[in-house]
Structures are given as C-alpha cells and as structure tokens.
From TrEMBL:
Source domain of life: Eukaryota
Biological source species: Tetraselmis chuii
Compositionally biased region (Low complexity): 71-84
Compositionally biased tracts (Pro residues): 38-50
Region of interest (Disordered), ranges: 1-107, 180-202
Name by which UniProt lists this protein: Uncharacterized protein
Lineage of origin: Eukaryota, Viridiplantae, Chlorophyta, core chlorophytes, Chlorodendrophyceae
C-alpha cells in the first residue's frame, strides 16, 4: 500500500512538473513575449538623432527657437549660422565702415591713375596720327617733286643730246672747210669768225 502511494505521489509530482512546463511554454508563446524565467526582453533600438522612444524623428515646429543642428537656428529663414549681431559684431558677412572707407579711397585713387594713363594714351595716339598725316603729305610732296625732277632730267638729257649732235655737225663742217681750202682762210675772209659756246656762227 505504501509503495503504491509512493508511486502515485511520484506520478503526481511528475504531472505537476509537466503542468508547469506546459504553462511555461504557453506563456513563452503568448503575444507578450515574457519568458518563463520572468526576464523582460531588451527595449527596441532608438532611431538616430532622436531622444524620444518612438520611431518617428522629432520635427521642430515652424517659428520655434529650437535648434535642429549645432549652430544653426531653425527659425532663421536664410539658414545662416548665428553671428552674434545683437552684440554689435559684424562677423564675416559684412565689412566694417572703416574697411569700406579705405576700399573706396583706394578705388578712387586707382580710377584717377587709370584716367591719367588713358589721357596720356589718347594724346600719344593723336600725336602719332598727326605725325603720320604730316609724313603722308611730305611723301606726296616728294612724289610730286620726284616726278618734276624726272621730267627735268629727261628734258636736260634731251637738250644735251641735241647740243652734242650740233657740235658734231659743226666740227664736221670745219673739217670739210679745212680740207677743201687748206690755208686759204685769210683770202676768203674767214679770219675773225669764231665759234661761240651757243653753237651759232657769228
């Protein structure tokens, strides 16, 4: 009798243990995902750039002063970093009044120098143009003078040829007279007749 109770007690413990295992399996398969040991599952990973546990990223409201990125204000329409204008500092975006004054002065000085060089170049160009015009007129005059000299040269050469022909003719006549009369020039009254430079007989 005691052996049967021990067996039956053992069977009861095994049934109770099996019931716990089945109960643990049912819990592990439930939608809550709680394991039989009672430990909680790890939390889901957070999305990047978000402090909220939800998966949606936080979007700042329009017109708010919240900063979306480091150094950039979401309320600034131009999307420029804050340069501290409220403190009176101009930053890098705009030059100072002194810089503008110095730049204006240097620009005016450079402009005056450019105007001076421009005037010098214009005067030099005008002088060269006048010189070229004078040289052109001189060249035209020289061409005319050359033509006149050429005509004069041609005329002189022609007159020289005529004079040479006349001189040759006179010498030939004198030789013929000398050959025909010999020394009878005195008898025929030829004494005193001289040959002039102009080629004419007196």
């Amino acid at each position: 009798g005691s052996g049967d109770e021990a067996c039956s007690g053992g069977e009861g413990k095994q049934e109770e243990k099996g019931a716990k295992v089945q109960k643990g399996r049912r819990i592990s398969g439930s939608p809550t995902g709680i394991p039989p040991s009672g430990a909680l599952p790890p939390p889901p990973p957070l999305p990047p750039h978000s402090n909220a546990p939800s998966s949606r990223p936080s979007v700042p409201k329009s017109g708010s002063d919240s900063v979306g990125q480091a150094g950039w204000s979401s309320g600034d329409r131009g999307g420029r970093p804050s340069s501290g204008r409220s403190g009176g500092s101009t930053g890098r975006g705009r030059p100072s009044k002194q810089e503008l004054t110095d730049g204006k002065a240097s620009t005016l000085k450079a402009l005056q120098e450019a105007e001076k060089r421009k005037k010098m170049a214009e005067d030099m160009a005008k002088q060269l143009k006048d010189d070229a015009e004078q040289m052109r007129q001189t060249a035209e005059t020289l061409v005319v003078e050359k033509a006149k000299m050429s005509d004069e040269y041609t005329k002189v050469v022609h007159e020289r040829e005529i004079l040479l022909e006349r001189l040759a003719f006179m010498e030939q006549m004198m030789q013929e007279i000398e050959m025909s009369h010999g020394d009878g020039d005195e008898e025929h009254g030829l004494e005193g007749h001289e040959y002039e430079d102009d080629g004419h007989w007196e």
